[in-house]
């Protein structure tokens, strides 16, 4: 289906309201909904908000057709839940499907690698070139001191770090992927145990990093994660069933001003 950009239209004119059957969704309603749909741009957030409201209105109208109460917000949520329970056909995954999915996606059902990390943060904003250059040179000087006297890490962290962890001598404890900023996270996963030989950059500045211990992740056997596997397959099946259901409602009721995409069920699953 073709998507319609609802942020701008030729000539700068205000786009018409979105219509779902005989109901309209105005721009004020979309603006209020945007806070629940963070995105990289206002246009993306607006599009996600508009689609979420279209989905809600489609379900509200269908619930009304079936005689389910839809007068107040609380009633609408209950009616939608009752509607989906009644009309959505989600097959239960079988044991063979679960075992096959587990075998095909071992990374999804594994214990992550854990790192016990200390660091010193030398703060510098990304757009402050002078401070970042100075911070890098300062970091190199501190690393030279640490190479000569590794036992001074706690002391130097307490004296020089701009991170609250300085109070614990730079201790960050055990970290797993995703627990720190992405740029530092990517670097840490490839480092061996010990003091890293150069400052590592992040949006916050430069990090002097020492990995004290590393515990490699391991794939978990099926019997330990069977319920997680079943839940993942059930969620995938629910998304697929919701998508087909919503696209069928769109065709039946009629939607103007925007088209539901293949991930129409996304906002509802959230």
From TrEMBL:
PROSITE patterns assigned to the protein according to its UniProt record, in alphabetical order: PPIC_PPIASE_2
Taxonomic superkingdom: Bacteria
Keywords: Isomerase, Rotamase
This enzyme's EC code(s): 5.2.1.8
Lineage: Bacteria, Pseudomonadati, Pseudomonadota, Gammaproteobacteria, Oceanospirillales
Domain called PpiC: residue spans: 112-213
The reaction(s) this protein catalyses: [protein]-peptidylproline (omega=180) = [protein]-peptidylproline (omega=0)
Organism, as annotated: Halomonas halophila
UniProt record similarity statement: Belongs to the PpiC/parvulin rotamase family.
Molecular function (Gene Ontology), one example: isomerase activity
Protein's name in the database: peptidylprolyl isomerase
